[in-house]
Specification:
This protein is mainly beta and about 120 residues long. It has one helix spanning about 5-15; strands spanning about 20-25, 30-35, 40-45, 50-55, 55-60, 80-85, 90-100, 105-110. The mean pLDDT is about 85.
Length: about 120
């Protein structure tokens, strides 16, 4: 039985190379990942200026640090680094939410750290 989430992931991966990225969690790097969007804007809050992204990253669960875990071994509040394909600089984010799509794809919703 084919997992629809993985079928969609593979189709988008193949058709849209501009969405490809790498995700690093600690020492573990997932090179087959895609980012739905990455927009970083600065907003003034009562706690100071904050960089606020609107970001969602997806990758195959088999590439996760702990592939047998439902969330790939990644939990909310953890720091991850993201680098777009062809970029030299990693950007650090905090995981806001972790979800499993189907049985084979993990989705991370990312939040920025305070600037």
């Amino acid at each position: 039985m084919t997992d629809a989430a993985r079928t969609v992931f593979d189709a988008v991966w193949a058709a849209m190379p501009d969405l490809r990225c790498e995700v690093r969690v600690g020492r573990h790097t997932m090179i087959m990942a895609k980012i739905n969007r990455l927009l970083v804007s600065r907003e003034n809050t009562d706690m100071g200026q904050m960089a606020v992204p609107s970001s969602i990253v997806e990758f195959p669960k088999v590439d996760a640090p702990k592939p047998n875990d439902d969330t790939g071994g990644i939990s909310a509040g953890e720091s991850v680094d993201v680098r777009m394909v062809g970029a030299a600089k990693w950007q650090t984010f905090r995981v806001g939410d972790v979800a499993q799509l189907g049985t084979t794809v993990v989705r991370l919703t990312l939040e920025a750290e305070y600037a």
